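Problem: given the chain below (496 residues), write out its structure.
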Amino acid sequence: MLLILGLIFIYSSCLIIIFFYALAQLNLLINYLGEKNKSKNLMKWDFNNSDEIPFVTIQLPVYNELYVIERLLLTVEKIEYPCKKLEIQVLDDSDDDSSKLTKKLIDKIKRNGINIVHLKRKKRTAFKAGALKEGLKKSKGEFIAIFDSDFVPNPNFLIKTIPYFKNTKVGMVQTRWGYINRNFSILTKVQAFGLDGHFTLEQVGRYAKNHFINFNGTAGVWRKSTIIDAGNWEGDTITEDLDISYRAQLKDWKFIYLEKIITPAELPIVISAIRSQQFRWNKGGAENFQKNIYKVLKSSKINLKTKVHALLHLLNSTMFLNIFLVGFLSVPMLYIKNKWVELTWFFNLSSLFIISTLIFYVFYWFLHKQKHGSGLLSIFNYTIRFLTFYSISIAFSAHNSIAVIQGHLGIKSPFIRTPKFNIESDKKNSHIKNRYLEKSISFYTLIEALMSLYFLFGLYSAFNVGKNGDFGFFPFHLLLFLGFGFVTIKSFIKIK
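Solution.
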């Protein structure tokens, strides 16, 4: 009986945590809806006056980017800004022959009169954070714009962002990500669906009420003195962007989020690439919780509501662990429910937590509504999209839970890059020949395959428990079965 009570305690605790997280998301939605038609009266430089145009350094951290380095450099070359007040640093940590191509491209751009430098470190310490820190030492700019290799910034990026730094309290300006391959496949559609929620509802919702927001690692600009004042880039977490965001805001630097300024990027198109990206994000989130939450909670300058949102923000990745446990334990709960009738009250009460799912449904609905309207056909299409997103996102929960546990326990792991593809040239599934893709079946694929079978057993169990079966968990188990099954199949088949 103690085992049963222990499982029930874990199951109910996870449901409660998810519920409170859902309430926080609802609050961000309310903040967003209250803010979207407002325009903040922000101080800006007048770039018609050449004296007000500051010197800017663009940093491009790259590592083995054979397929996208040309697109990146040619795109950045076209950025509109006075040449005399701009430098470009290519922070090249590559250890393959992509460096030769990078150098060749840089030499060509130099001949066009562009101030661009090729920086290579002798030792790749602290990964991306180390590269940014090393580049910062040699940078001439008062402001630092950063782009990852899979981004395609618009020519007017600096003209649209730099003027906001006229307010000397502003330390960072972040733009919203867009996606050049949103409609490439189900996987890219699912990723875009989830990221849209973050970059629109979450970022705007936090920014509207002056809660902590985060630099997203790319497509943003920093005041150089802010980086230094915050303690500079540190490599003790694998999400250095989230880390320095919190350290800077704890120093009272103000961040600006520009929802209407979109910087295009390329989404990962295969499971292994998504896994490596999500592993970093989720493990790094847990690492930053351990590193920064105490500083936030003890600060007398931060109000209670901002502390609550910061707590849940830093626990964002830990939700995957809670979701995984709820899913995994739902199968034994099915048997416990039908064997111990004295616990019927508990399961009736726990069913109320379907409200959490409904909140998430409403949360993303407002994004869909803005683009597609609110007719019956739109609602139907949205419901299909949401269930697809829900199913596949949960399917990554096993993999992401391992990342979260490692992060909270302080287990170190190497920085695993996300393979890039240059999808615009991928008309005939050429990405399957990408040299950076893993060549063997991942350990995580085996886990996901087993989880798919596990939830198939859950579906079977619905017909065999009690006198007439119990189908209360059936829709949930069906989504889990389909999600884990889809991810497993896509791990074996690396084509569109």
